[in-house]
UniProtKB/TrEMBL annotation:
Protein's recorded name: Alpha/beta hydrolase
PANTHER family membership: PHOSPHOLIPASE-RELATED (PTHR11614)
Domain of life: Bacteria
Residues annotated as transmembrane: none
Keywords assigned by UniProt, alphabetized: Hydrolase
Hydrolase as UniProt keyword: yes
Signal sequence region: none
Gene3D superfamilies reported for this sequence: alpha/beta hydrolase
GO molecular function: hydrolase activity
Keyword Membrane part of the UniProt annotation: no
Length: 323
């Protein structure tokens, strides 16, 4: 395995820092990872190293306002922030196609990154061969519109670059309630205490995002419409049943159903019993990584649900925002 750091220029000349993890032998596909809010692409290095051992090239990168070199931490852009992050992803995927010519390209989006990935699939679905969504949620239009009104009010009072603790408290404050007594304020991320501690100790994680980013994010989510996606695009969703972002499984199940009802023909959902928000960093991460591998382009049961009628919903099920 070997790695390479790239500096890519987006359509507005914003510089994107990306890392390529490539196997020593020829790879069979390329996976691009779109990370979550208040984290960064480097957190996926361990997963990427493992995937290269399975013959997969992986590209991670930092969204605008994220990563160690961000000029404005927690802020996309002063104008057209959501479209800018989608354009950045388009630049990364274009690079993936250059590095891995003729190979299928899969896109994995986690939490906030899952919504960026969905916007990308809506605009450039022909550029990817598989869409994988980790810890996503339904598009709750009425709740999002109310949130947009509140965020717009705060923006008018404090400005678009203001890092809002109030919005963070309203959004993330409730996520730890199901896990009381909690060891930390981020116990909702994972049952693995070491992973939670690594997140808390990371200086490039857990920061407050700007009012402008929240406004862009909400507007971006409201623009997502699976009826505008490629109907033949394989879409795979996975999450934990105890992920508060996905409403403890309820929200992601509703989104899974909405995608199916939109006419997308190859949709799967896997819920991992007891898992929290970051399934890739959970106590059963080995099983989750194996599932992710099966979702990548190939001949697996998960990748080809049309050949396996029961594969459109797998896993155990019990019982708006997120990092």
């Amino acid at each position: 395995m070997h790695t390479q750091t790239l500096q890519l220029n987006s359509s507005d000349h914003h510089q994107i820092t990306a890392t390529v993890f490539a196997p020593d032998q020829a790879s069979r596909c390329c996976l691009v990872i779109s990370h979550g809010m208040a984290e960064h692409g480097n957190r996926y290095a361990t997963l990427a190293n493992w995937l290269t051992g399975q013959g997969i090239t992986v590209i991670t990168y930092h969204h605008r306002g994220h990563g160690p070199d961000s000029a404005h931490p927690g802020h996309y852009a002063d104008d057209q922030g959501w479209q800018s992050v989608v354009n950045d992803l388009h630049r990364v995927i274009s690079q993936a196609k250059t590095l891995c010519p003729g190979q299928p390209v899969a896109l994995l989006g986690h939490s906030m990154g899952s919504f960026i990935a969905q916007s990308y699939a809506q605009q450039h679905g022909e550029q990817i061969d598989t869409l994988i969504l980790s810890a996503t949620n339904r598009i709750h239009h009425s709740q999002l519109r109310l949130s947009l009104w509140l965020v717009s009010l705060i923006k008018a009072l404090r400005g678009k670059r203001h890092p809002s603790k109030a919005i963070a408290k309203l959004t993330f404050g409730k996520f730890n309630r199901p896990f009381q007594p909690a060891r930390t304020h981020c116990d909702w991320l994972s049952r693995d205490s070491q992973q939670v501690d690594r997140y808390l100790a990371d200086p490039d994680c857990g920061f407050h995002c700007s009012v402008g980013l929240w406004q862009d994010f909400i507007r971006g989510m409201l623009s997502i419409n699976p009826r505008q996606w490629r109907t033949d695009l394989p879409v795979h969703l996975f999450a934990g049943t105890d992920d508060p972002v996905g409403e403890m499984g309820r929200g992601i199940r509703q989104h899974f159903q909405a995608i199916r009802e939109a006419g997308v023909q190859r949709v799967t959902l896997r819920l991992f019993d007891g898992g929290r928000h970051e399934m890739l960093n959970e106590t059963n991460a080995d099983a989750v990584w194996q599932h992710l591998l099966q979702c990548l382009p190939g001949d697996s049961q998960v990748q080809n649900p049309a050949e396996h009628p029961q594969a459109d919903f797998t896993g155990r099920v019990s019982g708006l925002f997120g990092r």
